[in-house]
Specification:
By secondary structure, the protein is of the alpha+beta class. It has one domain. A hairpin with a 3-residue loop joins strand 1 and strand 2.
């Protein structure tokens, strides 16, 4: 199997929410199963988590308004289900850290490598990253997120997320403290950006999950063109 499981390096990336979510959840639950073994806890707890996730999805099905929200709901509630079940066994802080690591780490190298390969191969890495961002806004996030394109020209793409579906779902399920884990996942592709090599930088000083009023996703050329 190709190490670029999300096909980021192929160019003209279009998210496949069903495929991408399945890949993420498989890695997520595999990581949690390894943690359970490390703590001498029964791996049957993973089955319990998946069942709890399904029950939470059924209760929150009214939040699904388009195809992206269907998959984003699955992803978000997987964090809630594991957090609920792990907390009595590991304590709140360890459960939170476990969920965060399980969500971020399994595919970190794959995402960084694929993104880096895509940028390295692009004639204009800035334009390639902007195109990927716009594709993800449409196909991976959809109508349950509110995006504001504050600046969109050949030098800067400054996107502000004014509403985050992940945060809405986690808050409704009494787990807003998990939102920063969703935010931290983005480091998997952000870290692939090398301003000196790719000619642009990325800035995100805060997020809604960290207490900000919005999430700025700001891409700016470091070597402006005329």
């Amino acid at each position: 199997m190709s190490p670029d499981r999300f096909r980021l390096s192929e160019g003209d990336y279009v998210p496949d929410p069903d495929r991408d979510t399945a890949i993420l959840l498989d890695g997520y639950y595999d990581h949690i199963a390894a943690v359970l073994r490390d703590h001498a806890l029964p791996e049957s707890l993973v089955t319990e988590m998946r069942s709890r996730q399904a029950a939470l999805e059924a209760a929150d099905r009214h939040r699904i308004i388009d195809e992206p929200s269907r998959h984003n709901l699955r992803l978000t509630l997987a964090l809630v289900a594991a957090y609920e079940i792990l907390t009595p066994h590991l304590g709140r802080e360890t459960a939170m850290n476990t969920v965060r690591a399980a969500f971020i780490e399994p595919l970190g190298d794959v995402l960084r490598g694929g993104t880096r390969a895509m940028l390295d191969a692009a004639p204009d890495p800035f334009a390639a990253m902007v195109a990927m961002s716009k594709s993800r806004e449409e196909h991976a996030f959809g109508e349950t997120f509110v995006f504001e394109r504050a600046i969109d020209d050949d030098q800067r793409y400054h996107l502000n997320v004014r509403r985050c579906f992940y945060h809405d779902v986690l808050t409704a399920n009494s787990a807003p403290e998990l939102t920063p884990a969703m935010c931290a996942f983005d480091a998997n592709w952000i870290d692939a950006i090398d301003p000196e090599t790719h000619g642009f930088r990325f800035d995100r000083p805060t997020t809604i999950g960290l207490g900000g009023t919005h999430c700025p996703f700001h891409f700016t050329r470091t070597n402006p063109t005329d």
